[in-house]
Write a structure and sequence with these properties.
The protein has about 110 residues and is α+β, with helices and mostly antiparallel strands. It has helices spanning about 25-30, 85-90, 95-100; strands at about 1-10, 35-40, 50-55, 55-60, 70-80, 100-105. The strands form two sheets. It has a four-stranded antiparallel beta sheet with strand order 2-5-1-6. Strands 3-4 form a two-stranded antiparallel sheet. InterPro entries: Dimeric_a/b-barrel, YCII.
Length: about 110
């Protein structure tokens, strides 16, 4: 099963940096195991453009649409047997300590 994992900042990061795993090790382990299909860091939220169509008119807004202190800073597509495995993969990611990770199953259409 494929999962989109949104990598987000958080206002309450882990204070003990010695407990935070290394991102390069996490990427290498999950790439080698075939659990990480792809992933990337995103550009700054200030570089975002939000697109909406209302009344037939294309409306553009600079920056992210949501007004929040937490922002999505990256993503990974995971291939896992089930949600339990996806949770274990996410829990080992450094941003589980310094941010938050949101898992969503991808829906085949």
């Amino acid at each position: 099963m494929k999962y989109m994992m949104f990598v987000c900042t958080d206002t309450e990061p882990e204070t003990d940096e010695s407990r935070v795993p290394d991102i390069e090790v996490w990427v290498a382990e999950n790439d080698t195991a075939g659990r990480r299909v792809t992933g990337s860091v995103l550009g700054a939220a200030s570089a975002a453009t939000t697109v909406r169509v209302r009344g037939g008119e294309v409306l553009l807004t600079d920056g992210p649409f949501a007004e929040t202190k937490e922002v999505i800073v990256g993503f990974d597509i995971l291939e896992c047997a089930d949600l339990d495995e996806a949770i274990a993969v996410a829990a080992a990611h450094p941003m589980a300590y310094n941010g938050r990770l949101e898992l969503r199953p991808l829906v085949d259409r």
